[in-house]
Amino acid sequence: MFSALAFIALTRVVSPSVADDVENAGIAARLKAAYPEYVAGVEGDSLTFKDGTRLPLGDGKPKPFESWLAHPDVRDMFRYLYSRGAAALPPSRNFDPGRARNEDFFTKVYGDCRKPGFAASLTKIRWLPKKSGQQITVSRRNGVTEHLQAVSDELDALPKTFDVYLIPSAGGFLCRTIAGTAQRSGHGYGIAIDIATKHSHYWRWAKGGPSDSPAYHNEIPPEIVDIFEKHGFIWGGRWYHYDTMHFEYRPELIGVGK
User: Fold this and answer.
1) 90-254, what's its fold?
2) Which end of the chain is flanked by fewer CB atoms within 10 Å, N or C?
3) Per-residue confidence at 182, pLDDT binned at 50, 70, 90?
4) Using 50, 70 and 90 to split pLDDT, how confident is the model at 257?
């Protein structure tokens, strides 16, 4: 485990796995398993929903990294393979698995936080009920509530030495965009939570961040990451543009309990 005073600046690099040729059937299987109340399957090059609506899987446009992040289609979300359980090593340049979200898809399965009635899709969990009891607002859709509460309960059972990374949480739902972009943050869908602000590192704050060559740093212990990943949450510490406080429910990329 990393100590509370450890400052990790590793030099090894994680190479990306790129899934440029993900088959439609594979995308459909992942999305159906992750969002069974909404996703029906794939017909041709369209994702079909149970209400009969459709969404193109791809727009047919080759995308450099900036376009991939700013205007991802559904297939683009699977461009980089997320490696659960991998060591917390500096990723290769622009290796950001899960950082791209197709807004049409996520609005379909979670709603639009800018519109009236969105609050009905939210609920609260008790964060670390034995040690903290803080109330965190998250989505009640797609199992977010149940899986984050399971994460919280397992983290609550860790030794006290982990508490500095967990108490207090920096919060869940917040209707906002990602800093420096027009893309909706995972927090805007109620699927993300931030922890350990005093022990977290963010690429924009790092040396080299403004020039897009941020030096990688991490203090979040692997035991915490493992528990989140077990319940379908990806970790921003696995991104080249890292955000080590950030965890986001993305079962289509990581699965749950596998």
Assistant:
1) Muramoyl-pentapeptide Carboxypeptidase; domain 2 (3.30.1380)
2) C
3) confident
4) low
Contact status, residue 164 vs residue 196, Cβ threshold 8 Å: yes
Confidence of residue 22 (pLDDT cuts 50, 70, 90): low
- Residue 3 pLDDT greater than 50, yes or no: no
Q: Which positions ≥6 away from 159 have C-beta within 8 Å?
A: none
Q: Report the DSSP beta bridge partners of residue 247.
A: 193, 235
